[in-house]
Amino acid sequence: MHKSLSEANKASLLSQVQKRKRSTSAVDASNTVHISETDQLQQLTSSPTLISPVQKRSKRVGSKKSLVWKHFDTGLRGQDPIATCKYCRQVYACDRSTHGTSTLWHHLRFLC
To answer: What positions belong to coiled-coil segments (predicted)?
Structure first.
C-alpha cells in the first residue's frame, strides 16, 4: 500500500533537493569544474581546518590487562624486561612488542 505524501512533505523534500543541487559542483564535457556561488561563498566564510601531523602511538602506559601477571614479578635485566615466576623463580623475557603471555600461561599450567 502506497502512502501519498502531503503537500508540506513534498515542498520540504523539493527544497532539500534544490539546496543539494546548488551546493554541488558541476563538471561539463571539457572536464572543467564549475563551482556554484554557494560553494564559493561557503569556502570564503569558513575557517580553514588545521591538519595535524601524524603522531606515533605512544607506548602503552598503565596496568597490564592479562591475569597471568598476578603470578609473575616484572623487572629489568640490563635493559631487557623480564618476568619472574613468583612460585619457582623461573625467568622469562617479557618485552611487550615481541613476547606475549602465552609462554607464561603455559608455564603456569604445565611447568610450575
So the answer is: none
Contact 24, 16 (CB under 8 A): no
> Per-residue pLDDT tens for 49-106?
666 666 666 666 666 788 999 999 999 999 999 999 999 999 999 887 888 899 999 9
- The reply to whether the predicted model has a pTM over 0.70 is no
Cβ contact 82:91 at 8 Å: yes
Give the integer Cα–Cα distance in Å for 58 and 55: 9
d(CA 17, CA 82): 64
Residue 66's nearest CA partner among 58, 55, 57, 74 is 74
Residue with grid cell 602506559, as numbered in its chain: 61
Which residue's C-alpha cell is 602511538? Answer: 57
Provide CB contacts within 8 A for 95, sequence distance 6+: 80, 81
